[in-house]
């Protein structure tokens, strides 16, 4: 067997369902598959992987959802947690609950995410203020804030825009 044959990628897995799935169910299943794949050792170092994962998780919610990706010191996913739920244009965010989740999981880094049900992913002034508050709170316990992703029709990364 040649070296090339040994390094060839595995064929993609096939998935079968016994019933029709709604769009919401399909996106939920896709996010579970991606989460499972990433939880088994791949670090969340690629911004596009993070954006795809969060788009599957949050893009189709009809109300605002604020979530956190809790990561270990190698930036591998420990847990994805939806923490706060709001209305069509706002969700309350409490730093105390974020810190509690970080301590419970022994996370070394986080990525924040929330959706804009309007579809417009542009961060608001309130989004920027809450990110600053959360980053300051986590800095006091030596936990890295890697990014805050806003999900709409597109995704916006605070880190890519230099907002962190």
From TrEMBL:
GO terms classed as biological process: proteolysis
A GO molecular-function descriptor: metallopeptidase activity
SUPFAM superfamilies given in the database record: JAB1/MPN domain
Ranges where the MPN domain occurs: 43-164
CDD domains linked to this entry: MPN_DUF2466
InterPro entries per record: MPN (IPR037518), RadC_JAB (IPR025657), UPF0758 (IPR001405), UPF0758_CS (IPR020891)
Keywords, ordered alphabetically: Hydrolase, Metal-binding, Metalloprotease, Protease, Zinc
Transmembrane segments: none
UniProt cross-references to PROSITE patterns, sorted A to Z: MPN (PS50249), UPF0758 (PS01302)
Record Pfam families: RadC
Domain of life: Bacteria
Database matches in PANTHER family: DNA REPAIR PROTEIN RADC (PTHR30471), UPF0758 PROTEIN VC_0510 (PTHR30471:SF6)
Official protein name in the record: MPN domain-containing protein
Organism annotation: Aliidiomarina haloalkalitolerans
